[in-house]
Design a protein that fits this description.
There is one protein chain. By secondary structure, the protein is an alpha+beta fold. It is 50% helix and 13% strand. The chain has 25 helices and 19 strands. The strands form five sheets. Strands 14-16-15-17-18-19 form a six-stranded mixed sheet, with helices on both faces. A five-stranded antiparallel sheet has the order 2-3-4-5-6. Strands 8-11-12-13 form a four-stranded antiparallel sheet, covered by helices on one side. Helix 15 runs parallel beside helix 17, helix 16 runs antiparallel to helix 17 and helix 20 crosses helix 24.
Length: 611
């Protein structure tokens, strides 16, 4: 473009680009009172939202990293754009035609909007080519063979790159795009003779969009029978000013609203898996673009999940059931620690990916795959154990030696004892033996074995989903005691965190007294502080506190407490000889059956809980 953008145009774009709408394309915002909205800052890592937006004034500010400014400053910093590129992008977003001051310098330059426009034009070209007779038939047959209709291909913008050296090059240059622009966008490359040729040829094409919906690159699959193309099976756009594969997730533009709404994201492995999942009703599915799932992807997902609400967020990985898939799960084991959200793994029993699963079992099979997810920690540990013959003493010891360091790697200290009990049950070994092996593994041993003199809060992650649930129940009891009628039915082990259990005991000692009286009767400073904190902290529900919400969280807490007791009973059964201790074994087993039934009943009550 020639010249600088006129000042009045800049002012118009700034005024009509609502900052909460623009920020909302990248960050999940929630009302913060006083006309403000808040979310997790996109400019630094944080677990609790300190990023505030004031729509009425058109400004944002992060109280954590002190970054602030207007809508132009936000987009410039986040997308690493120049001032002109930012204004052009915002103008395009609101459909406003900019004018330029002809008195300014005339520089052809390359800006982001031109690169996006070139990619968008390429996507349209590829889509039109898919419908033409000839070699494109191979692409259509590929899609049909995997259960995708013409409508599905159109929905996801799937196209076909012609089996020609320069078909796209000729098409886009005829539209006015320069060789420099097309090369910078990654659409063409220099051939062996020094001329430019298309980057993608005789391949099925998926347009890759950024979170705001702009086409920034492509993923391409080699088609069967193409002996001329010696390239890889999958080929992606190379790194460009607008295509950063470590920061892109295929399908995120379609899935972002559902991810924020459902507090769930499903990570699949390929483009066809994303298509299959969405068509099957799993509308939170995304995939990486030819790279491993990494830190930048985690930051993007955390902002959408708003996962300071830890027990509302789920990150579900789908892996192949083979050895490579298990390795991927173990790699993700470390990445999981960077999420506050709960992380799960969904693997089909037959090892099929979502695309194959949809073909063989229909949409319901894909939905069922996600529904049958298991915690990532559990999957990783069971994958290790499966490599040993645990019917033999040597096999059990070998498996324990491999699993113990995994337990030690769990950063959430409150989860480690739970997995110690679980592993002891899976291996049929004494809890003390497993616990001892974990301590000897040395991984994070210092944090796990803090001295009694240290504050318990230092060794417990209060953002743990279960502890947040316990906290929510206590808040309801203190703030809305008239609605907390299920309180009397709570199990004795319902509160696993020391201060919470102590507060529960204080409340039970005098259940009908006021908050002021409760404070006067409490001498422990930690518990006194906890009472005032929980009294003023908002209850985590949208709108009014409903009876259904309260019933749900109490039922969920009871389910957790029962699950904890069930693990202990199963451990007791493993130590009992049913022949030598027949009476005790039968009584314990009967108790287990009854408790399992009671837990199922509580699980039904907790379905549809409001958080």
């Amino acid at each position: 473009m020639a010249g600088r953008i006129r000042d009045e145009d800049v002012a118009y774009v700034r005024e009509h680009s609502h900052i909460d709408d623009v920020v909302g394309d990248f960050v999940q915002l929630k009302g913060a009172g006083g006309g403000q909205k808040k979310g997790l800052c996109p400019f630094h890592d944080e677990k609790s939202p300190s990023f505030h937006v004031t729509p009425s004034k058109g400004y944002f500010h992060c109280f954590g990293c002190q970054t602030g400014g207007d809508v132009i400053a936000f987009l410039m910093k986040l997308e690493h754009l120049t001032f002109t590129e930012t204004v052009e992008r915002l103008a395009e977003r609101i459909g406003y035609q900019l004018t330029y001051d002809s008195s300014g310098p005339s520089t052809p330059g390359i800006n982001r909007s031109r690169l996006v426009a070139a990619n968008t034009a390429a996507a349209k070209f590829y889509q039109e080519e898919l419908g033409k007779p000839g070699p494109a038939q191979l692409g259509r047959e590929f899609l049909t063979g995997r259960g995708f209709s013409r409508e599905a291909a159109e929905t996801f913008g799937v196209g076909y790159a012609p089996d020609e050296w320069d078909a796209l090059y000729k098409h886009l240059t005829a539209l006015g795009y320069s060789e420099v622009e097309l090369n910078t966008a990654g659409l063409i490359k220099e051939g062996s003779r020094g001329n430019f040729i298309d980057r993608f040829r005789n391949r099925l094409i998926w347009p890759v969009k950024d979170i705001s919906g702009d086409v920034v690159g492509f993923g391409a699959r080699k088609l069967a029978g193409d002996d001329k193309d010696q390239g890889p099976k999958y080929l992606n756009t190379s790194e460009t000013p607008i295509y950063k594969k470590s920061q892109l997730l295929y399908g995120l533009d379609m899935a972002k609203k559902e991810i924020a709404k459902k507090r769930q994201v499903v990570i699949v492995e390929g483009y066809t898996d994303v298509m299959a999942a969405h068509l099957a009703g799993v509308t939170t599915a995304v995939a990486t673009c030819g790279t491993a799932f990494g830190d930048d992807h985690i930051r993007i997902i955390r902002r959408l999940l708003m996962d300071d609400d830890a027990f509302r967020g789920e990150v579900i990985f789908t892996f192949d059931g083979d050895a490579a898939g298990q390795k991927a799960a173990l790699r993700a084991f470390d990445d999981d620690q960077k999420f506050v959200a709960q992380t799960f793994v969904a693997v089909a029993a037959n090892g099929m990916d979502p695309c194959d699963l949809r073909q063989s079992g229909g949409d319901e099979a894909v939905r069922d795959l996600v529904a049958r997810r298991v915690p990532l920690f559990e999957f990783a540990m069971k994958s290790v154990i499966a490599g040993y013959d645990i019917k033999t003493p040597e096999g059990r010891v070998g498996a324990l030696n491999q699993v113990a360091p995994l337990i030690g790697k769990i950063k959430d200290a409150s989860l480690r004892p739970e997995y110690v009990r679980s592993v002891s049950a899976w291996l049929g070994m004494e809890i003390d033996i497993v616990s001892s092996a974990v301590k000897k593994s040395g991984s994070r041993g210092t944090a796990h074995n803090q001295s009694q003199g240290e504050s318990s809060a230092q060794s417990v992650n209060l953002k743990d989903p279960i502890l947040m649930l316990e906290r929510e129940v206590l808040k309801v009891k203190l703030q809305a005691p008239e609605l907390a009628y299920p309180w009397a039915d709570l199990e004795m082990n319902a509160f696993s965190y020391g201060p919470y259990a102590t507060l529960r005991a204080r409340i039970d000692d005098a259940p009908d007294i006021s908050i002021n009286d409760l404070l006067e009767r409490t001498e422990d400073d930690v518990v006194r502080s906890l009472i005032t904190e929980l009294t003023v902290e908002p209850i985590r529900t949208d709108g009014e506190i409903s009876e259904r919400y309260i019933q749900s969280i109490f039922a969920r807490l009871r389910e957790v407490a029962m699950s904890r007791e069930i693990v202990e009973i199963k451990s007791d059964l493993q130590r009992l000889n049913p022949v030598e201790n027949e009476v005790e074994y039968t009584a314990t087993f009967t108790r287990l059956v009854g408790l399992e039934a009671a837990r199922r009943a509580q699980k039904e009550l907790a379905i549809g809980e409001a958080f």
